[in-house]
Amino acid sequence: MSDGFESLDAFAARLRSLPELAREAAPEVGEAVRDEIGRQIAAGTDPDGKAWEPRADGGQPLETAGKALAIATVGPRIIVRLRGHVARHHLGRSRGGVERPILPSKITPTLGRAITKVLARKFAERMGGGNAV
């Protein structure tokens, strides 16, 4: 028999579990970050949407940058880095000093929306809120 406080106790327990939500959501947030940066790379733009300077031969710059993208999660943190020669280009350390930024130095609006979408869904699932954003 219910004492009338079971649902309130369950809600309080879900609230107490919220500090762990970022850690639990980190792998999915990492995938969302990978997808968003991958779209930006495929489009040949910097994190703010500005087109990269074209190659001297007119070809698509940094065609292999997507393969150089590495994402890892450590607790609630998302670590994003580049491996290989594209990392030098990202920092402007190439012949001619042409800089083609790949990784954002801050959370851009599009990256923020991708992260928020995952966190809002996870929050709704945790709190029993039904439809996520």
Account of the protein in words:
- The longest helix has 23 residues, at 21-43.
- The protein is elongated.
- The protein has a two-stranded antiparallel sheet.
- The chain has one domain.
- Helix content is 47%, strand content 9%.
- A hairpin with a 2-residue loop joins strand 1 and strand 2.
- It starts with 5 loop residues before the first helix and ends in a 6-residue tail after the last helix.
- It has five helices and two strands; from the N terminus they run H-H-H-E-E-H-H.
- It has 133 residues and is mainly α.
- The chain has helices at residues 6-16, 21-43, 65-68, 86-90, 109-127; strands spanning 69-74, 77-82.
Rounded Rg: 20 Å
Q: Tally of extended strands?
A: 2
Q: For the record, give the distance between the C-alpha atoms at the N and C termini, rounded to a whole number.
A: 36 Å
Number of helices: 5
| Low-pLDDT stretches | none
In short:
By secondary structure, the protein is mainly alpha-helical.
Keyword list:
133 residues; 5 helices; mainly alpha; 47% helix; two-stranded antiparallel sheet; elongated; 2 strands
